[in-house]
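Notes from the 1:1 (GR / supervisor)

We went over the backlog. Supervisor wanted to see one worked example end to end before approving the batch request, so GR pasted a single chain during the call. The sequence is below; no edits were made to it. Supervisor asked that the structure be written out right there so they could see what the output format looks like.
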Amino acid sequence: MSDSVLDALFEAGCDDATFSAKDIRITAEFDREATTLFDAVIAAIEDVESVGGLEVLEVSPDELIWASEIAQRTGRSRQSIDQLIKSPARSRGIPRSASHATRNPLWRWSDVQAWFAAYEGRDIDSERPFALSAINGDPAGETQCESNV
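Structure output shown during the call:
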């Protein structure tokens, strides 16, 4: 990806994104604030597509995170998360990791977030899967994604 494309994306409002490129595919990870997830994603798509020649092909919802990030996001200690991961009764522990591509396993944040909601007796955030399925043109909610928003 050329510096001129990066400059154009920055000028278009994508100053809250990190970009990477492999061959002709550009991937962006946004940290965008908005009233709703849907609003944040639509605004990011509009900003990217305002740069000539760029088109958003897919919005991937799942962040892959390490155990230390689970601890940080849930306000728990790393030791508490390790105990939940190593729970002998897997039905009571954190969901199985999604990837072992790195030295340390990675979990899908959406799986962990839903599990903690149930574990702590709170409502599960249902906006995320429905909004992203609709954006990807999958109204049945069957989109399978591996990257992140």
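Supervisor's comment: Helices lie at 3-11, 37-49, 67-74, 78-85, 109-119, 127-135.
Batch request approved.
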